[in-house]
Every structure is written in structure tokens, then in C-alpha cells.
């Protein structure tokens, strides 16, 4: 049945043409925008995923800038630490030259003062955008990553770079918790006399047949039968005279009746004495070093701001620990402070005892004993600088030159450690920066896979749809002309 009111063929052709035009518009939009998913209506799931990933890409772009800033800041600090190490090495050379007594120490001191001032200039100028990692003790946190959890929660991940204080600041002693139990001073005073050990000779009215061998500080004396004459007191006199004739530095012998007394004024060195033979019962004694000690705890921890003070006579030496320091650093800092005071006759040494505890030894070679000797500690202070004591180096005297040679090694090591820490941190940031760059590229590639249009496919579809559109128009035209054939029935 034909109808002039309802043209089913035209309606079918029109719907087909609409569908073709819709597909054609979508393909044209893909070609013009380059995206197959340009909005949430195209594919809401893929659109949502792509937007989350795009926000991560933007975040990682900012992280890349943060890493670049951090790397530049650390590079400046590393260069400053390396330059400081070179200058400290030059200072060491000057100090070594000052060990000779026939040099102009005043001129050497002038050179050292200039180098110390230069180190101050370097540490002050080693800043990037106002941030100086060679001063203070606060850590630097460099934003390194954004970690997205399965739940969608995002957390920041930082690379922490510890500051390396290379200033000469003295620090500020605190008034917090008492720490005196961590630094125990031996019983004073700090005597200027030597320590003595006695060897008792056997009672014998005639020692002519006695033999005797004694080793003192590595030197051995042998007495054969006939070397002694008289009783044991005379034998002691003979041995004492022979020991004194050796000329051992800081070691002397004295006869006290039947006792042979051996005295040592050597600082920081025990003297071992062993003996055999008929004149005395074989055995050995140790003449202890001439020094008083401050022994630091081998179990307690050192926190930033922990300060320790040692009073030697009228001099008060103070050192305040920085972040990450140990009792070895505290002992070396106090040694430097005492040496800088140039107390008459006083020399110092830092050692480790059999338990692993750090020990600061103090010797007195002056004309009088030092009666005041105490050690205390307190928390809550402001840390001393990593080059504490450098500005007090004085090689114009024998004692000052000797102390400077020992202390400069500690300062050089501190500077080397600082440069190594910065170098390690810079290398880590470079690796992270490269990783973030590659990760960002991977995220962009993933986003493209989700939403980018396949241009080859879109081009082929466009040509096919254009042909379909033309055919659709022709089909609609034919369908619209079909009712006109009914007119021939009325002619």
C-alpha cells in the first residue's frame, strides 16, 4: 500500500543519515582535538582516570622544579665544603711549618689568620636563594615524590639533607637537664709531679753474688754476679744510678733504702717495668701516665644542644654538641677549647679506653699543681660550629703549635665529612630527578593511550563516513521522490 501521508522509506533513510552525521561529527571532533575522549560524556571512566593522572603529571612537573632547586642549593654547599677543606689543608701546611723553632711564627700566624678569614667568607657566601647549608643545624627537606595509595590518598615524600655547620661559633651552654653523670672527672688536683712505683730488693748483707736484670720503658739493664757490692741498699743505689744514666725522657730512679723507686713524668704514656734475678723477687710494675681524665659515658646518647664544661684552674672550657654528634666530637671540642686557652703547662689528648668510652686526658707540666678540676653537663643549648676553635689557632708558641697540629686534623675531617654528605645527597637528588622525568613521560604516554585518538583509524573512518553520508543523502532523495509516482494514477 502506498501512502502520501507516511513515507516509511524516507523516515528510514533520514534516521540512517542522522546516525551517519553523528558519527561523522564525532570523527571530525577527534581529528580536530586529537582526543577520542575529550569530555566526561565520551567515556566517563576513562575521562576520570585521565584527569587524575594529569593532576599527577602536573604535580611531578612541580617536583622536578623542586628537585632542581634543591640540587642547585646542595651543589653550592658542596662546593663551599670542598673549598673549605682546601683552605684547611693550607692551614695545616702552615702549622707544620711552625713546628720548627727557627721560623718566623708571627708571619706564619698572619697567613693562618688570613686563611681563617677566607674560610669565614666562603661559608658565609655558600648560599642559594638565601639558603645556606653551611650554617645552622636544621635539616633541609627537598620534595622528591608524590606517592598515591590504592585508596587514592596522596602523601609527599621528601629527601632530607642534613646541614653541615662549618662555622666557628662557640655555641651557647644550656640550662636544661643536668648531664654531669655523662662526663666524670678523675679526682684532682692535676698534679705536676710524676707517678712512682717501688721495687723492694731482697734483704742481703752481701749482694756480690746476686744477678739482676731490669727493663724500663723498653731499655734493658743487666747486672751479673760481682757487679753489686755491699748490702741491698748499695745494690739499689747502683741500679738507680744506671737507670738515670740511660737518660730516658721523663723517667728517673731513686734509691730509698731497700726500695728502688721509679718515677715517670711522661704525659699520656704508661711506663712498663719488668725485672728478674736474685736481687729482687721477679715481677713487673706499671708506672701510670701523668694525667687526669674526663671519661665520657659509653652508653648515653648525645643530643643536639647537649653542652659540657670542664674547669681547669681558672679556665672554663665549653662545647655544645650539634645534631648527629657523638662523645668523640664532644671530647675533641673540649680539647680544642682547653688548647685555645693556652693554660701554662697544660696539654691534652683524646683516647678510647678498654670499654670503648671516650677519654679526655689533661696533663700539667707547669711549676705548680692545678687544684680545680671539674666536669659538668647540661641540655638545652645552642650547638657549637663544626669548625669550633679554628679562629683560636695560635702557632706563635711551642705549645700552641703542638696543639694546633692535633686539632687541625679534626677540623679537616669535619670539613671532609661535610663535603661527602653533600656529594652523596646531590647524587641522590640527581637520580631522583632523572626518575621523575622518566616517570612523567610514562604517565603522559599512559594518558595518551587512554584518551588520544588513533589518527590513522580516524582518517579512514572519516572517508568512509563521508561516502556513507553521500549515499544517505541519495537514498533520502530517492525515498522522497517515491510518492510522486502516485500522480501518474490520476492522469
What does this structure look like?
This protein has 491 residues and is an alpha+beta fold. The chain has 7 helices and 18 strands. Helix 2 (44-97) runs antiparallel to helix 3, helix 2 runs antiparallel to helix 6 (398-451) and helix 5 (327-341) runs antiparallel to helix 6.
Quick overview of this protein structure:
The protein has helices spanning 8-33, 44-97, 105-125, 232-245, 327-341, 398-451, 455-481; strands spanning 127-128, 131-132, 140-148, 154-161, 183-185, 195-200, 212-216, 219-223, 251-256, 259-264, 271-277, 283-287, 292-296, 307-312, 315-320, 346-352, 358-364, 373-378. By secondary structure, the protein is an alpha+beta fold.
Which CATH class of the largest domain applies here? Mainly Alpha
The profile of the biggest β sheet is: 4 strands, antiparallel
The CATH topology of the largest domain is given as f41 fragment of flagellin, N-terminal domain
Shape: rod-shaped
Helix and strand string, N-terminal first? HHHEEEEEEEEHEEEEEEEHEEEHH
What is the domain tally? 4
- Overall strand count: 18
- The structure class reads alpha+beta
Q: Total helix count?
A: 7
